[in-house]
Specification:
Layout lengths: L7 H6 L23 H6 L2 H18 L1 H14 L5 E7 L3 H4 L10 E2 L12 H13 L18 E2 L4 E7 L25 H7 L6 H6 L4 E3 L6 H10 L12 E3 L12 H17 L2 H16 L6
Parallel strand pairs: 5-6
Antiparallel strand pairs: 1-4, 2-3
Helix pairs in contact: 6-9
Length: 299
């Protein structure tokens, strides 16, 4: 409505009411509902860490006789080490909302170009894995020499993952290859270990070290991770959670044999991350046992 003959000066200074009726007061924005107290407890990092550490310690103690038998079987059936070590990409604190002071943990050493910038990650992924696999004097646990600030961002916190060896030595001498049914690289005992997922038992040590959880997305190698996050939408969002020994994807599908398998796995992983809690983790652990017993996912 028009003003009641207000002079221009009073309108400018705000000393005269411009409108006949006052404007309705703005309603305060509805506050987002706060999570319940129990929900906050069940999703807390502290409880999650206590649960994972406790389960890993108890499991290693109970399974120690089985671990010894598997180690002997691996050694007797094929030449090579009992434990297979490989660099994998873990949680990315930039996505998980964790302590920003840990951001350096997501980087690994990489060569610089002549202009002083870090080299291309795509071409350095395998080099990063080789450097992590070596242990040398003066080299820190994350693969970086003391005082060396040069690094390559590999997409998350890199760590060394442990498994019982199920393939022949130098099975990937020519590069990473998708596992296939009746794969000739798999050792005599390797097929049984992979089918029952018993080859993953050594990763309980990774859980004790805080690098993995019992439940979470499976970690990938830096070189493969870099390629997959270019080919698969939202792939990098899997790094919002710590990687796990088992997971929602692992109990719902077989080992990856193609890029399409990975796409389906990503959907399972993201669905888990949205609803993860201690209760959800316990449910997935319970569902993992039938997978191991009935060898779901065996090739």
């Amino acid at each position: 409505m028009a003003s009641r003959g207000a002079d221009p000066q009073s309108i400018v200074t705000g000393s005269f009411p411009v409108f006949d009726s006052p404007l309705p007061a703005a309603r305060p924005a509805a506050a987002a509902p706060e999570p319940s107290r129990w929900r906050a407890i069940l999703t807390s990092d502290s409880l999650n860490r206590v649960l994972n550490f406790s389960i890993a310690a108890i499991a290693l103690t109970i399974l120690s006789p089985l671990i010894l038998l598997i180690a002997i079987a691996v050694k007797l059936t094929s030449a090579g080490p009992i434990i297979y070590r490989q660099t994998r990409v873990g949680v990315d604190r930039r996505l998980s909302g964790g302590d920003r002071r840990g951001a350096g943990e997501r980087r690994l050493p990489g060569p610089r170009r002549e202009d002083g910038r870090a080299g291309d990650v795509a071409g350095k992924g395998q080099e990063v894995e080789r450097r992590m696999a070596k242990s040398g004097r003066g080299r820190r646990a994350d693969g970086r020499r003391a005082g060396d600030r040069r690094a390559v961002d590999v997409g998350g916190r890199a760590f060394t993952m442990y498994k019982f060896r199920t393939m022949t030595v130098n099975a990937e001498a020519t590069g990473a290859v998708w596992a296939a049914k009746n794969d000739a690289r798999i050792t005599p005992i390797g097929g049984l270990l992979r089918g029952t997922r018993l080859d993953e038992i050594p990763q309980l040590v990774n859980v004790l070290k805080g690098e993995m959880n019992i439940v979470g997305p499976r970690p990938e190698r830096p070189s493969i991770f870099h390629q997959l996050r270019k080919e698969i939408d939202r792939y990098q969002l899997r790094q919002r959670a710590k990687p796990g020994i088992t997971g929602w994807a692992q109990i719902n599908q077989n080992y990856d044999t193609s890029i399409d398998d990975v796409r389906r796995k990503v959907e399972y992983d993201l669905a888990y991350i949205e609803r993860r809690s201690v209760v959800e983790d316990m449910r997935i652990m319970a569902k993992t046992l039938p997978v191991m017993i009935f060898r779901k996912g065996a090739h």
